[in-house]
Design goal:
Blueprint: E1 16-20, E2 23-28, E3 37-42, E4 45-51, H1 55-67, H2 72-79, H3 83-103, H4 113-119, H5 129-146, E5 177-182, H6 187-197, H7 200-208, H8 213-224, H9 237-244, H10 252-263, H11 268-281, E6 289-298, E7 307-310, E8 315-326, E9 332-339, H12 344-354, E10 364-367, H13 374-383, E11 387-390, H14 396-401, E12 409-413, E13 416-429, E14 439-450, E15 455-462, H15 470-478, H16 487-494, E16 505-507, E17 512-514, H17 516-541, H18 557-581, E18 585-587, E19 598-600, H19 603-626, H20 636-644, E20 648-652, E21 656-661, H21 667-681, E22 692-697
Parallel strand pairs: 6-10, 10-11, 21-22
Antiparallel strand pairs: 1-2, 2-3, 3-4, 5-20, 6-8, 7-8, 8-9, 11-15, 12-13, 13-14, 14-15, 16-19, 17-18, 20-21
Helix pairs in contact: 1-3, 3-5, 6-19, 8-19, 11-19, 12-13, 17-18
Amino acid sequence: MQQKLLFKDEKKKDNQVDLGSGLTLEFIGGMGKQAKKIILYRQGIIVRSVDLSDRVAKRLFVVEAIEMGAGKLDLATALAISRQTIHNWIEVKKHFGREGLIQGYNVGTSKSRRTQRELHKEELSSGNKAELVAEIRAKERQEHESRQQKINFTFAKEGSNPAEPIEPEDQPFAEEHGWEKTRYAGTFLYLISLIQQWNWLDLVIGYFGAAYKIFMVFVLMAAANIGSIEQLKNVRTREAGLVLGIRRIASKPKIWEWFYSAAQLQVSQFLRADFFRYQIRAGLVGIWLWFCDGHLLPYTGKHQVRSAYNTQRRMPVPGRTNMVTCDGSGRVVDFEIQEGKGDLRAHIVALGKKWAGEVSRQPVMVFDREGSGADFFASLVKEGIPFVTWEKHADAEKLAALEESRFVTEFIFNDKRYGVFEEEKTFTVGPESGETEGHNVTLRRIYVWNKTSKRRASGLAWTGDMDMSTQECAQAILSRWGSSENTFKHLNDRHPWHYHPGFKLVESDRQDIANPEIKRKGSLITEIKNGLNKLYKKLVKAKVATKKDGTPRQNSVRERLESTIVERESVLADVQEEKKLLPERVDVSSLENYESIKRVDDEGKYLFDFVTSSVWNARKQMVDWLRPHFDEENELVDLFYAITNCQGWIKSTSTDVTVRLEPLQQPSRRFAQEQLCRRLTNLGARTPTGKWLVVEVGEEPIKNVHKNG
């Protein structure tokens, strides 16, 4: 969910320009070339803001706006640039990816193009980009004419084995056949998007060779929400196999054979790294806001494993934590499965370092209160990683006492009215190794007032030298939590997110546990303190007994109480000292009656989640392509799933694979369906052997449909 700023009954401002397809461009600081900043809205919802002094960001913004449906002429007129320039940028990104737009032009603060090219001449691609694109097109036509029917992939990474070559008959969509009916025709849309936009099939075949077939089956499971391999028994094997390009889905033992032949290669970490890197370089995921959160993967078996935390039940349960990072639109950027509760803070720091070389600037990390901590904030500032988060343990009384007039910035978000303002918060951390005293860290404190629900909260941010306003910081934390928490819930509803094929347990590298003796000592200390409290109460009530001459009487109740208290206080001090000397964690092998701790082997889970994330991101992209052709935003996602669930027919020749979907009944929905299919066909997707992938909408091409089991 994003900020909602404009309504149908509101008049367009003088500094706003319509770009078509529900897109509106707002200029700040002037119009056209005089503008300092621009903000893009879609259906009144803020999408992105760009500083026009950053030339690279401007080019990336223009390409993204065109992909979202903005008219070239409208955008060129608004920004005072030519349509040919926009066309060249689009072609450069298509053939060279994001790095082509970044490296092909001068960067930095210098105004001298010659100076910048001298500084970056080793990084820049030589030659005119438009001429290079023309050469690439001519070369592609020649390659298509002379392409061989067999392609050998020999991807090899350190610690892995290269994939074996694929026989011609095992190539995707190698079989040639006439029109055949299939219930799973809509799944073909995912394959076209993945093959062309993500270079997905080449990547999978390169790593796994003939074992790529299990990934095609996983695509079907994610697209059709099939919960497990066992549920494939309900699938029409021939009809599904035709759409996936593997002739027929094999029997369950054979599918497991495909799976284990892929899992035993142990290359999931390299596969994920290459896939995520390609997404970032090709501009398929955003790099402004990255939302990081951990999600429980529960374990219900009988073996002892480490415990994660169940947020809904508010208690630790056996399982693992999937640390998932998404961009502002909900596309999965990266994920990592950690044993037990996991370490969100370490994951965020590692994530920033991992992708620092692939982005022009560090994305703003957005996380919840779990990551709160002065030392952690200081480490992010030290590493130059910008962040926005909620402030933990904020004083509710002080927030309520803030004057309403201080909330000077107002906006509407998720149909709720908000007011915000900011101050600074400074705290001292350290000293670190080699330092004699601590140092101060100053953060931005964002105060948020939800005027609709009459609640107040505060957040913390550090954005370095980024031009990020108070409102944008507030929107960042509101975009993921509260009523906006949707990405993972929707993903789990639509895809078998928790499924783990090939469940296997291995010995955990961490065999240490919290010292149980500390807990026992703590219980004993509590017991002694409770007993002392009772004795103190009795001592207060006990009267001083004296003899007739006024001297204290020996062995009185009070004297016995005082003696017992001294004895128990001595025992308490001894137990407390013993507890301090105990180690916090112990190895279970040194304890009696303790089983070794097991760990779930994540290789199979990584392979399945790689496909699930791929399908999810492709779904996000295709919904964006569908949006300009359908006005009902609330029904857009349901329309997309209706299209991908369509039955249809498939034909495979020596040059093309064509899928025809049955048309939807309502004219507006059928129009959107046709436009999406045209868009996917125009991508020019091809199989590794050169067959073009085509999807269309139409009536039944044959009268007598061959029925397949």
